[in-house]
Amino acid sequence: MSKIIEGLLYSDSHEWVKVDGDIAVIGVSDFAQAEMGDITYVDMPEVDDEVTKGEDFGALESVKASSELYAPVSGVVVEVNDALEDAPELVNEDAFANWIIKVRMSDESELDDLMDAAAYAEIAK
Amino acid sequence: MEDNLKLTCLYDKHVALGAKMSPFAGFMMPIQYSGIADEHIAVRTRVGMFDVSHMGEIFISGPDAERYVNHIFTNDVRGIAPGTILYGMMLYPTGGVVDDLLVYKEFAPDSFLLVVNASNIDKDYEWMLAQAPGYDVRIDNRSEEWGQIAVQGPEAEKVVVEVLGWPGAADLAFYTFADFECGERMIVSRTGYTGEDGFEIYASPEMVNRLWDDFLKAGVTPCGLGCRDTLRFEAGLPLYGDELSADITPVEAGLSMFCKLDKDEFIGKDALVRQKAEGTEKKLVGIEIFDKAIPRAGYPVELEDGTPVGVVTTGYRSISLDRSICFALVDSAYSKLGTPLWIRIRKKVFPGKVVKKRFYQTNYKK
User: Does domain A9-116 have CATH number 2.40.30.10?
Assistant: First the structure.
């Protein structure tokens, strides 16, 4: 059974969002990291890159497969989690503590399309 | 579960061990148990075992067996000693590959065992039957009667001797086999698909189940198809469907050493002779990129200006070497060692260069 944290928002492609003012902190769910297995590389955008809701902004790579990361909201990347460059396995160790990017949202109403923890628990199994 | 998927005789063992199961070549197979990297390292440093019962066993016998096998097979079986194993391919007249396989020269006269890829068993058997007119041979597909376990790694010899209670296993040279008497026929073969020393053991489903349990008790790590692929890849070994196919010849794949063009004839020989003389448009190469990004099958290989010159066939972040490497089929003009090439991975392009296909130094018992 994978872990789901209350108070976060979730996409159906298994990203989570923590809202901090107009900043969206984005990571992948515990369910997603468990499905991937040992993560060996996190492909991340660069600061100032634009991301668009529903489009891929990077990928997680395991030994066997790569899995694209989809932006749950649109905006501009303000920070990437550099720690994942040398230690991608942090995502396996704690997918919620180890965020991937922070985005300054261009349209906060996009958050309305995301799920709460209870709704996400229905699809993450 | 999907319809028509076959199960190997060890299916219940995999489920009991909590393996992640997935369809492969028409079989429900274990992809991993503890994790691909753990299992990979177990084979490189100690010993692991694989259920390879899905592989096909086709027996050829009769007065024309040697002449027939030499007709359909690229390597040369003329006069080889019983107990000898040869790697090679069956080709279409175009030089494209029907399958790559091992040929075992049996101890019974005029008899061979052909071990073929699971995904190709039916196709291969039909192909063999279609080539048989004019030869006095019997072709017997007994794939479902045989299970197989591959025991691979530097400690494989010790553990196989111990579990079988047969010191003779240690005396087997690489690419030879022996029949081991244990109340039924067991074939013990010094072969593998990992780049390490090891054995492939063929026996009845019941015996294979007993062996699996005994190897587990002896401390052998159960390994899935996930690390089977990472291991064979590092060792520079091709996989049918990725590096070999009806559209890729052994000359293009760099496997000419297993095609004996001095034989009078074999199916596909003329095409290979022509390719050897004229050169081929494409060639299989190894490429290393200077980044942690991972080249995967299907990703484009490009020149610096973006001109496409090939495609990745298999790629990984190598577990043993910690390098991002791949096999790729590229225009022959860019196949020389050291040639700079770029690989497009999603939205980015990564520089790299052509390197030797055998990425990892193999440790076979000579």
Answer: no
